[in-house]
Design a protein that fits this description.
The chain is mainly β. The protein has 2 domains: 1-44, no CATH class; 50-100 and 124-406, TolB, C-terminal domain (Neuraminidase). Helix content is 8%, strand content 35%. It has helices spanning 6-19, 24-41, and strands at residues 46-52, 64-65, 69-74, 80-84, 104-105, 114-115, 127-128, 132-135, 141-145, 158-163, 169-173, 181-184, 190-194, 212-218, 223-228, 234-239, 245-249, 277-282, 287-292, 297-302, 307-312, 325-328, 336-341, 346-351, 356-361, 374-379, 385-389, 395-406. α1 packs across α2 (24-41). The longest helix has 18 residues, at 24-41. 42% of the residues are buried.
């Protein structure tokens, strides 16, 4: 009896994977490095493969619940940081935080709402969690903090959290008067505020923001890039230690303009201005990628603001747009970009060199692997992908990286685990 060689198993595994009979993990178990060769030789496209982890994170302690989960970051220890909006938790979901005497109770008598006397909570479940929650790789909450305090102006509407390479935590806010960015230690000690709450003078104001969305720390120059934002139309850069202003630019690297722009139309010429600058990330080889969310595009720059190229993603997406957040794959070349589309409820997988969409995964819904308002993305050192959902999605999910394999479908739908 002649047993098949390891190479024969790998080749067979690729064929069966294309037919849907085996998983990416099966191929990896037989030797994934060799398995990639037949598809590459045939000219097939390759892309990262993910499966949702329905067991991550673990249930929150203390009867906690979260509102719109509006920011996400992974630190150098693979801890996952999220920030949510406590004021978006529905009253029916925070009985332990509401006193009976404070709440109008529709259940006292049907059709005749009234107030209930007493200072006891309405019930035991649930309580609103602190704004910032930190999870370890196993899904346990290991730290929590956040909210107004002495010496700084906490945002009216939280938006974005970033842990930089020195272990500091940056947050932004997109409330109508949120014109500041804050910096803390990991323990929540206040370090620095850029901008003054409620003060802004347009997209060329170098002291204040207007509804900034996200911060990216670029370690080589120790600079923070800020996407600014819902109100302003620019990327702006500061020294990460001193907060000194460095430079800023708008679409195509030009000086931003706050003049009223027509609504986005996929058939119109590309806009000369950003429309909701929702994220900015910087690659290790020095390129700056900007989410121009409502304009359905990514614009690429050098670090001095000189324009390189742009690409439209799901160009027929209206209203909130198609490019909500970006993050790089964790291979040394950062070969891929993952892009969140919170309207179509999916993650696009892009080849970074061309910005071509190779495949996508996800669908609308409440179950693991589905999304409602997929808003932010981050990867850990193992290549696993994390997602945060705004609106009443209000959660964080993990997608396990299963290696790189042939692209067999343009849209994969829910990437449910293949093994049970």
């Amino acid at each position: 009896m002649h047993l098949p060689t390891a190479n024969q198993l790998r080749v067979a595994g690729v064929a069966l994977f294309v037919l849907g009979f085996v998983t990416a993990q099966d191929i990896q178990d037989a030797g994934a490095q060799g398995a990639a060769k037949p598809a590459a030789q045939a000219g097939g496209k390759q892309a990262p493969i993910f499966e949702v982890d329905p067991f991550w994170p673990k249930p929150l302690p203390n009867h906690w619940v979260t509102g719109s989960t509006i920011g996400l970051s992974v630190d150098d220890q693979d801890n996952v940081w999220t920030i949510h909006r406590p004021n978006t938790v529905d009253a029916n979901f925070k009985a332990a935080d509401l006193k009976a005497s404070e709440a109008v109770d529709d259940e006292v008598q049907p059709g005749a709402p009234g107030r209930v006397s007493g200072s006891d909570p309405i019930g035991a479940c649930c309580k609103v969690a602190p704004p910032i929650l930190v999870y370890d790789a196993a899904g346990n909450v290991v730290s929590h903090w956040g909210g107004p305090g002495a010496g700084y102006e906490w945002p009216d509407s939280n938006h974005g959290v970033t842990v930089d390479h020195k272990g500091n935590v940056w947050i932004a806010g997109n409330g109508g008067k949120d014109t500041q960015v804050l910096k803390f230690t990991k323990a929540g000690k206040f370090l620095l505020q850029l901008g003054k709450h409620g003060v802004h003078n347009g997209s060329n104001d170098t002291q204040n923001f207007w509804q900034p969305t996200k911060i990216f720390h670029e370690p080589a120059a120790n600079e923070v890039y800020i996407s600014d934002g819902y109100g302003n139309r620019r990327v702006i850069i500061f020294d990460a230690d001193t907060g000194a202003y460095k430079r800023h630019w708008g679409a195509y690297g030009n000086k931003p303009d706050d003049a009223k722009m027509p609504p986005y139309s996929p058939s119109a010429p590309p806009s000369k201005q950003f429309s909701t600058v929702h994220c900015v990330i910087v690659s290790d080889d020095g390129f700056v990628y900007v989410c121009d969310r409502v304009n359905d595009r990514i614009q690429v720059f050098r670090k001095d603001g000189s324009f390189v190229k742009e690409a439209f993603i799901d160009k027929n997406t209206y209203r909130s747009g198609s490019v909500w957040d970006l993050t790089f794959s964790r291979d040394p070349q950062q070969t891929y970009i993952y892009a969140a589309n919170g309207v179509d409820e999916k993650i696009n997988v892009l080849l970074r060199s061309t910005l071509e969409v190779l495949t996508s995964f996800g669908d609308g819904g409440r179950q693991p692997g589905q999304f409602f308002g997929v808003h932010n993305l981050a990867t850990d050192s193992k290549g696993n992908l994390y997602t945060a959902e705004t609106y009443t999605g209000a959660r964080v999910q993990r997608f396990i990286y299963k290696g790189v394999g042939p692209v067999t479908r343009a849209n994969q739908g829910v990437v449910w685990p293949q093994r049970r």
